[in-house]
Design goal:
α2 crosses α3. The longest helix is centred in the middle third of the chain and has 21 residues. This protein starts with a strand and ends in a 6-residue tail after the last helix. By secondary structure, the chain is of the alpha/beta class. The chain has 6 helices and 11 strands. It is globular and about 55 Å long. β2 and β3 form a beta hairpin.
Length: 304
């Protein structure tokens, strides 16, 4: 494993070189402040037919204590392999600041892109405004999170190693893949969530619709596609009223087409008798800012 220390007062905030953050309550959480800094470790683990590289945040004081920490697995996509140190800095800054203010419990955060060959949601599609239909590799990769990454983290870091102290969540199609991993393995994780979950990319699930939404307002994927909820439900029969979940969370931007899928997922969970928390984030679209807002809303709900 390669550990990267983080010095106080850094400028990394997850923005591109031609962008800047305006100081204020909207952005301060995502910029390095005076809070004690956690550490970031880059490592890899056998994952399907290759090695999967990923990033692990440990809270300030981790290496000077014997305490065990709960773990949040974030499936964000986009090559989380150590080359995204600046792009992911907003996560690390947010963790530092919210832990320091005691708004959230100290926790370990594992950031990974779980996609595998044949499992990508990017590229051209027969669905206008939608990503690719994925293959069975998508399901295999979701399971590999639980079978390969989770045991490695539990062995290598001080964790309680039980379902009540694990959470899996993420953004877009990788976020829906993390949701699948958790929902198919409820004995391994008691908390799951998605930020603008790309559920229509699950293999064989997406169906064409004639959307009532229009791109003059709604920005993002899946304008004319939603999941077939019967097919989606067949992938996750374990997620029901007897699953005893601590947290099932969903968020979506008010101005992105995936709000159609979000409403279908709410109905689906209601019919299954699953308690959940759902949040529509006003003015948000399907982009990096939405990830920030969703993550900040999600973190305080964990590990209570």
């Amino acid at each position: 494993m390669l550990e990267m220390g983080r010095k106080g007062g850094g400028t990394n905030n997850g923005l591109a070189s031609n962008e800047f953050a305006i100081p204020g309550p909207t952005t301060n959480d995502f910029v390095a402040q005076s809070a004690a800094k956690g550490s970031v470790t880059y490592t890899s683990v056998p994952f399907m037919d290759s090695q999967k590289r990923f990033t692990i945040y440990t809270p300030a004081g981790y290496f000077n204590s014997s305490e065990r920490y709960p773990v949040l697995y974030l499936t964000l996509g986009g090559a989380h392999d150590g080359s995204r140190a600046n792009e992911d800095a907003f996560i690390f800054n947010l963790m530092d600041n919210m832990i320091a203010d005691k708004r959230i419990k100290p926790m370990i955060v594992v950031v990974l892109d779980p996609d595998a060959p044949g499992g990508s949601s990017l590229g051209n599609s027969s669905f206008h405004g939608g990503g690719n239909q994925t293959s069975d590799k998508y399901v295999e990769a979701a399971q590999a999170i639980v079978d390969n990454v989770v045991p490695f983290v539990d062995k290598s870091f001080r964790t309680p190693a039980d379902r009540d102290h694990r959470a899996i969540s993420g953004f877009s199609s990788p976020g829906a893949q993390g949701f699948m991993a958790g929902a198919r393995n409820i004995d391994k994780s008691a908390s799951i969530g998605t930020f603008s979950g790309g559920f229509p990319t699950w293999p064989g699930v997406g169906v064409q619709i004639e959307s009532k939404l229009h791109y003059d307002r709604y920005t993002g994927p899946d304008l004319n596609r939603v999941p077939d909820m019967k097919k989606l439900g067949a992938y996750i029969p374990q997620l029901n009223a007897d699953a005893n979940m601590k947290l099932v969370f969903m968020s979506v931007g008010s101005d992105e087409p995936l709000i159609q899928t979000f409403e279908l997922m709410k109905t689906f969970l209601n019919e299954r008798g699953v308690k959940y928390q759902a949040m529509v984030e006003q003015g948000e679209i399907h982009d990096g800012h939405n990830i920030r807002v969703s993550l900040r809303n999600f973190l305080p709900l964990l590990f209570k």
